[in-house]
Structure formats: structure tokens, C-alpha cells
Design brief:
546 residues; alpha/beta; Rossmann fold; six-stranded antiparallel β-sheet; 15 strands
Length: 546
């Protein structure tokens, strides 16, 4: 459940912090006050993509923070992702700066946008104000049916199995049509794989090889310079060490005449020791300047660059090219036998048909259930005599979406079923969409449901029924709803008023008297009269008596 939402410098919101309770909560206010902005902010902290345009003018960054109680499914996910926080609490936070750069946190730990999305899937389900428009698209109808049936994962498996079957068929057909071409390509790939394999290129060693080559490229100058230094220090008859030894011998004689010579000799001894260490280091350094090693590195680098140029890739991309070539070669080697290819194609087809048949069964079961429940809801939404049906038309040959074409159908009293897109008005679409969303939400596990102006296109008694539907849903789930209808708002357990003053959006929770004033405003506009207040109290009193 959403417990708290904090928003700063987001669009027209300067700073707002809201605390939420369970049940059915509505957001109301004048058009343009920023009601849906709250939903947009919540969507962002749940992983929605965004850019710098959401940052309030004049601000450095927008910041959204949401605190949730943790359902069991999220607790397990947080544990696996090592993002646990205080027991029973999940804190999501996101900032977007004026350049569009986004940062995310889960329970105080840095997180990715994908992790925010995954966490959000366990917490909130948002139904947008344009959901009824998506009902007109067959693909969205299919996805909605699969979601309600709990078959989204299975549908993905069907799609994957179909792609594998189609790929097996494509390879077999290509092999039949281009057998000779395939042999030529196989020979080319065999040579390519052999050449790339013999190179034994390791990207992790490449930078080190280049660095060593750059160092050894100056080997001649380094050898000459270090050799001269060794001669001067200690490897010639007239070297520094030889001269210092001679001086030390003479000073040893003089030390007998004057003890003050002793510290001078100590300094000379120190100089001899340091020069000796320098000579040792120079000898060790010179030993590493191996001309043969340089030649070997040059040859290695030339070979890598030559092959990379040949295949028009960067050196770092050679391992990926090798893997791709091996995969293609393996496919060609396995596909040289047409019968073997046919066997593989048949197996892929059977696997697809098995999964698609299983998916079709779940779809038919859910289609029957959804048709009955939506039809029942339509009767209560002033669509008496109308009916809803999910049509599953068998395809001659399946596709990536399964073995049937799915289409939502509707009929008015005394007419035949026709596609939803062809017969439903905007108001009817809104009601049907809302019925499907509410029915679908009943069987879900996400603790918080958000409806963003899904009541667009309805009014009057229908709006009151919609409010009751949402209130009943709020008995078992947390329901948040942005609405402009007093009939819906009056059914809520809690109400926030959103207002806009000097281009800044503000929100406040309403007490009983505040709700009366807000419902009266929604009923009567700017001029609130005693009559509208009385009507508002009556509506709220009806709500409280249920």
C-alpha cells in the first residue's frame, strides 16, 4: 500500500507531501490544477521514462519519493536484489535534473530504472485516462485477455516458440533453395572461424599489450640512455663510483690527522650506496628492454589490426564476430541434411502447437468468464439489454500470438454482436473499459490501484454506480482515483483537493466540511449555494450510510 508521496519541483508542483490510508481515495480539483500530475509523479518514481521537461521552471531538479508497505512478493524480490530496507517498508526515490539526468534509489541504495520498474510491478497498477481507446486495438484486447487470464508469460512462450518454428522453416527453405550457396558460405565460415580462433584474441589483455608496445617502441633510446648512465655511474674505469672510492681512500688517511673528516666520509659512503642502488635499478630496467619482445608485440598488434580491418570491425569486437560465425557455421552444418532440417522444423511446430493450444484453453475460459461479468456490469451502467462477448476465431495457421484471432464484441438490445470499434460510442467505451479494469483488478495481487480519469465520458446515475464499484474495490485494495465527477468523489473514503495558485499546484486532505464544500463546487461550479451544499451533504451522507 502507498503510505506517503513526496514531490518537489515537479512540473507545477513546488513541494507537496501526502499521506495515504487504505480504502478508496479520490483527487479532485479544477481543470488544470494538476490532479493528474500527482499520478505522473508516481509513475516516474515507479520507473516511467522522463526528461528535463518535468523539472519545475527555475529549479535545479525534480525529486519524487514514495513510501510503501511491503507485500510478500516484493519482500522476496528485495531480498534477491539485496535492496532490503526497514522491515515492512519500501522507499522509492528518484531525481531528474535540469539536463534530464535521472538517478534512482530503493531503500536508500542506488538502483537502476529497470529495478524501479520491477519493484513497481509488485506495488501499483495504473489505469490511464485513455485506456478505453486502447480497447479498440485487437493487439491490446489480446494482451488484456491474457493478463486477466494470468497467461502473459505463457503468451510470451508461445511467441518465442513461433519464432523458433518460423526460423527453422526459414533455414530449411533457404537450404533447399540455396544448397550450393550454403556450401560456399560454409567453406567461408570454416576459414573465418579457423582464422579468428588461431588469433586467440583476448579483449581483456588488449590494452595492456598496446601499453607495453608503446613503451618498447622507444626501446633503442631507452637502452642507449640507460647504458650511458650505467657507464657514468659505475661501469667505466673513470665512473662516479670509482672516483668516490678513490676519494674515500684518501680521506681515510686524512681522518687520522683530523676526526672532523669522519662525517664527510659518511656522506660519501651514503652517496656510494645510493649510486649503487641506482646502478642496480638501471641494470634491472635494461634487462626488461627486450628488442625481441618488442618485435613480437609489433607482429601481434599488426596481426590483430589486419584481421579487424579485413572483417571491418574493431579489435574489441573480434570475439563477438567469432561467436557469431561459429553459431552460423553450426546452423549450416546441422542444416545440410534436409531431412534433419524437416525433423527439427516438425519438432519446433509441435512445441509451438502444444503451447498455443494450452494458451487457447486459458483464453477460452477467461473469455467466457469475462463476457458474463462485463455483460452483468453493463446492465448496472445504464446499458440494459446490451451484451459483451470475447470472440476467439480459429486461424488456419497460427501466428506469433497463438491459434486464434481475438476481438471484443458488443451488441445493443435486439441487435447482433459486432466489433467493439464499430458500434460503441465514446461513453459506452468508457463504461466497458472501466468494467473490464475493475473486473481484472479484483483477481490481481497488486495492493494499490490507480485510476486516472477513467470516468471520462460518463455522468449522472452511471457515475454514481462507477463510484460504488470503485468503493467496493477499495474494501480489499487501496484505490486512488483522479476524478471530475461528484458522484464518484462522494463514494470515496478519503478525498484530496488539488488547487493551483500562481502557477503552483497544491494538495490538501479534506475533512468532512471540506468535502462538503468541494463536492458542492463540483456540483455547482464557482457560485456555491446552500442548495448545492445541501445536495453535497446528501451525497456524502448516502456514502457514509452504506
Amino acid at each position: 500500500m502507498l503510505a506517503r508521496l513526496s514531490i518537489r519541483n515537479f512540473v507545477i508542483v513546488e513541494a507537496v507531501e501526502l499521506e495515504f490510508s487504505s480504502g478508496f481515495t479520490v483527487f479532485t480539483g479544477e481543470t488544470g490544477a494538476g490532479k493528474s500530475i500527482l499520478v505522473d509523479a508516481l509513475a516516474l518514481v515507479l520507473g516511467e521514462r522522463s526528461d528535463a521537461s518535468v523539472v519545475k521552471a527555475g529549479a535545479d531538479r525534480a525529486e519524487i519519493e514514495a513510501e510503501f508497505s511491503v507485500p510478500d512478493s516484493l519482500a522476496l524480490w528485495l531480498s534477491d536484489a539485496e535492496l532490503e530496507g526497514d522491515e515492512g517498508v519500501c522507499l522509492l526515490r528518484r531525481t531528474i535534473d535540469a539536463t534530464g539526468r535521472s538517478r534512482c534509489w530503493i531503500n536508500g541504495r542506488s538502483a537502476t530504472l529497470q529495478q524501479l520498474r520491477e519493484a513497481g510491478e509488485h506495488l501499483v497498477d495504473i489505469h490511464g485516462q485513455h485506456a478505453h481507446q486502447s480497447l479498440l486495438k485487437p493487439l491490446m484486447q489480446k494482451e488484456m485477455l491474457d493478463t486477466l487470464a494470468g497467461s502473459s508469460v505463457l503468451a510470451g512462450e508461445v511467441s518465442g516458440a513461433y519464432r523458433k518454428w518460423a526460423e527453422a522453416r526459414r533455414i530449411r527453405e533457404r537450404q533447399e533453395a540455396h544448397r550450393e550457396e550454403g556450401e560456399s558460405r560454409r567453406g567461408q565460415l570454416e576459414w573465418q572461424v579457423q582464422e579468428l580462433s588461431s588469433l586467440s584474441f583476448d579483449p581483456s589483455d588488449w590494452e595492456e599489450t598496446l601499453s607495453e608496445q608503446r613503451k618498447l617502441a622507444h626501446a633503442a633510446s631507452l637502452v642507449e640512455g640507460t647504458s650511458l648512465a650505467q657507464d657514468v655511474i659505475g661501469e667505466s674505469e673513470d665512473s662516479c663510483l670509482a672516483r668516490l672510492a678513490s676519494i674515500d681512500s684518501r680521506l681515510a688517511v686524512l681522518e687520522a690527522f683530523d676526526p672532523a673528516i669522519s662525517p664527510i666520509r659518511s656522506l660519501i659512503d651514503s652517496a656510494q650506496i645510493q649510486l649503487g642502488e641506482a646502478l642496480h635499478s638501471l641494470r634491472h630496467y635494461s634487462a626488461d628492454l627486450d628488442p625481441e619482445r618488442f618485435a613480437s608485440l609489433e607482429a601481434r598488434i599488426d596481426a590483430v589490426h589486419s584481421i579487424a580491418r579485413k572483417y571491418r570491425v574493431k579489435p574489441e569486437e573480434l570475439p563477438a564476430l567469432l561467436e557469431k560465425s561459429r553459431s552460423e557455421l553450426q546452423a549450416l552444418q546441422q542444416s545440410t541434411d534436409i531431412e534433419a532440417l524437416l525433423d527439427g522444423e516438425r519438432a519446433a511446430r509441435e512445441h509451438y502447437l502444444s503451447l498455443a493450444s494450452k494458451l487457447g484453453k486459458t483464453r477460452r475460459e477467461m473469455a467466457k468468464k469475462l463476457s458474463v461479468e462485463v455483460t452483468e456490469s453493463m446492465q448496472g451502467l445504464s446499458m440494459a439489454g446490451a451484451a459483451f462477448s470475447v470472440s476467439l476465431e480459429a486461424l488456419e495457421e497460427g501466428d506469433a500470438h497463438g491459434l486464434e484471432r481475438i476481438e471484443f464484441m458488443v451488441r445493443s438490445h435486439g441487435t447482433e454482436f459486432r466489433p467493439l470499434a464499430k458500434v460503441a460510442s465514446g461513453g459506452e467505451l468508457s463504461r466497458i473499459s472501466l468494467a473490464i479494469q475493475v473486473i481484472g483488478s479484483r483477481g490481481g495481487t497488486v495492493p494499490t490501484l490507480i485510476f486516472d480519469e477513467v470516468d471520462v465520458g460518463i455522468g449522472g446515475g452511471v457515475a454514481e454506480i462507477v463510484g460504488r464499484m470503485l468503493a467496493r474495490l477499495g474494501a480489499s485494495r487501496q484505490v486512488l482515483c483522479v476524478t471530475h465527477l461528484p458522484q464518484v468523489a462522494s463514494q470515496a473514503h478519503h478525498q484530496f483537493s488539488i488547487s493551483r495558485e500562481k502557477d503552483v499546484s497544491r494538495a490538501k486532505i479534506l475533512d468532512d466540511e471540506g468535502r462538503v464544500e468541494e463536492i458542492a463546487r463540483m456540483l455547482g461550479g464557482v457560485a456555491i449555494t446552500d442548495t448545492t451544499r445541501s445536495h453535497a451533504r446528501e451525497m456524502l451522507g448516502f456514502q457514509s450510510s452504506r
